[in-house]
């Protein structure tokens, strides 16, 4: 692959192209046609000028010195690619119309177009040159990131209506942005491999690969599936073959292994999308062993949080023993509760759902002992008794409102600190004074 020839090349019209552009085109050609020579002796001004059909004096009059020329040359490598001029969305829409409803046909049509665009676009190789030659050039890298961001944005715009038309969603942890990045990397990688070894890359390889990839990523039932679920049947069989289902092959600390596996699965799938079988497979324990240790899934949450929750309650007891003022104590306990939720956010969804479901349900009853509102009740009761908060308030109801609001905020704003969460939820307390403030 070589850059597009200069305008007028071979026609006697080279002089119609601005001198600066001719010199930059000459440098690009020299690098791509005879890169080994350039590596050996560096860019030669005389040769560049000769290719551009100008004098060396004109070269220096245009760029000042060789260093500035190199700066401009690196930026030239990031010029807008030809394939950016094609509207991916239009191609996708036309492919949808022509596919007669067959997603496989539509995907292969779009991939064939995209692969030909990338393979024939000289900018594909030029972008690689930026990564090799210009990693220390902030302007070139910034421009390259902008180009890739443009590819990603075009991909997301094109793919979103396709998923809606197919009534499907992506399996976690993939997003449309992730898919756009992956497809760009895949098509560029195949195009580069084609340069080195054309016979190794059939024209249909990109389309076939994308059909397989999309088939694994799509969740037609929209059941909040995870990409691991696609390979789960095979993975489970391999795990069973690797570890016979008997006690001799158990982890040294099976209870801790189950808790660690649950933390990982909840973080990647969510609490309700994770089954005991998922946890058992990751923990490398037979499912009957897991259910013997933890009869229901929520009991794993209780087992993980029992110790940290006891530590949290001891902090509350210390404040009570030390006679900390109720309003100060409440704000302290809000921050401690927020820190608890952030440190164990993989299990926070289970705690929040336990508050929604009826206590009689076995799966939620297991976490009732991790009573987060109870952390706030002592400060609220003391504040009500002291007249700091309104006397008509029920401490339990108020504690549940504050604790569950705090827990929800920790789940939806994971990047905020415990102090920030506590300060936000603490504004609710400002409307509870039982007597006029004097401050």
UniProtKB/TrEMBL annotation:
SUPFAM superfamilies: Homeodomain-like, Tetracyclin repressor-like, C-terminal domain. Residues 44-63 bind DNA. The keyword Repressor applies. GO terms for molecular function: DNA-binding transcription factor activity; transcription cis-regulatory region binding. Residues 17-81 form the HTH tetR-type domain. Keywords: DNA-binding, Repressor, Transcription, Transcription regulation. The keyword DNA-binding applies. This is TetR/AcrR family transcriptional regulator. It comes from Saccharothrix syringae.
